[in-house]
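Ops channel
N.P.: pipeline sanity check, posting one input/output pair.
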């Protein structure tokens, strides 16, 4: 069995040890429940720390969340006006944790591009880096992570969202429907276009990107395993997330577009089923 640099094997992936480091200056407290639930998909949060000046009113939103979620606060006073000492403290701790060799990955929670080089360095050491930030996060930091999740999709929806949506004027509805056409989707998702969710609704279907993923992972008949497609999408776009396009899972996103994709379920070992996808012309 393949052994990784920290002495663990691939069989240990189900219990991967993760360190969650939160920049209180650049992360909203409203998404903490969704954040920890998302982290649980990738491993166990063995370390949970948050960095900031908790004597300031700016970080007061986090105070009631710390005990509730067993997050260790690291107090960092501002040494001088205009300088961010929090970033330095977080980076030093991240490097210290990396050199212990006890962790499989780190979750960096911030929208600050100052952590770009940190993410690169952690990956160079063999750790998996999960980034969490708002849609304002610079592309450089997004691309430096193995996987990047926008925190807007992690926040709990308000109770008012259960109400039926208000009717939109005909012109607005027509413009929204036009964005779902293949031409519009292709234009909005060019090779370098970041996955930015719009405030008015989900992003258009990244048709070209998904077709390239299927082509890269397909067999001679053009069929590709869904997990291989997902792996390709994450490698090319660390911020790819079906939730940005209105669906919880990649399989739901593919099924919602029968015009562009064909789906085939194949029986596997032990009665399990595997999903294969083929792009349609």
């Amino acid at each position: 069995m393949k052994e990784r640099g920290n002495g663990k094997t691939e069989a240990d992936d189900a219990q991967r040890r993760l360190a969650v480091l939160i920049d209180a200056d650049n992360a909203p407290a409203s998404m903490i429940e969704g954040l920890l639930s998302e982290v649980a998909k990738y491993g166990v949060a063995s370390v949970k720390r948050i960095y900031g000046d908790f004597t300031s009113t700016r970080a007061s939103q986090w105070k009631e969340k710390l005990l509730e979620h067993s997050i260790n606060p690291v107090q960092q006073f501002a040494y001088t006006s205009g300088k961010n000492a929090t970033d330095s403290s977080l980076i030093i701790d991240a490097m210290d944790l990396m050199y212990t060799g006890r962790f499989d990955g780190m979750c960096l929670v911030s929208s600050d591009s100052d952590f770009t080089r940190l993410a690169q360095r952690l990956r160079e050491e063999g750790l998996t880096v999960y980034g969490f930030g708002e849609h304002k996060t610079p592309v450089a930091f997004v691309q430096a992570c193995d996987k990047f999740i926008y925190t807007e999709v992690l926040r709990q929806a308000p109770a008012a969202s259960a109400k039926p949506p208000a009717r939109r004027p005909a012109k607005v509805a027509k413009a929204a429907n036009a964005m779902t056409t293949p031409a519009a989707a292709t234009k909005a998702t060019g090779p370098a276009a970041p996955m930015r969710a719009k405030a008015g609704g989900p992003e258009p279907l990244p048709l070209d990107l998904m077709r390239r993923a299927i082509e890269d992972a397909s067999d001679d008949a053009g069929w590709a395993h869904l997990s291989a497609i997902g792996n390709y999408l994450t490698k090319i776009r660390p911020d790819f997330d079906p939730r940005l396009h209105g669906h919880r899972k990649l399989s739901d996103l593919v099924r919602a577009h029968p015009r562009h994709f064909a789906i085939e379920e194949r029986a596997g070992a032990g009665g399990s089923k595997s999903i294969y996808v083929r792009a349609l012309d």
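N.P.: looks fine end to end. DSSP finds ten helices and nine strands in the chain.
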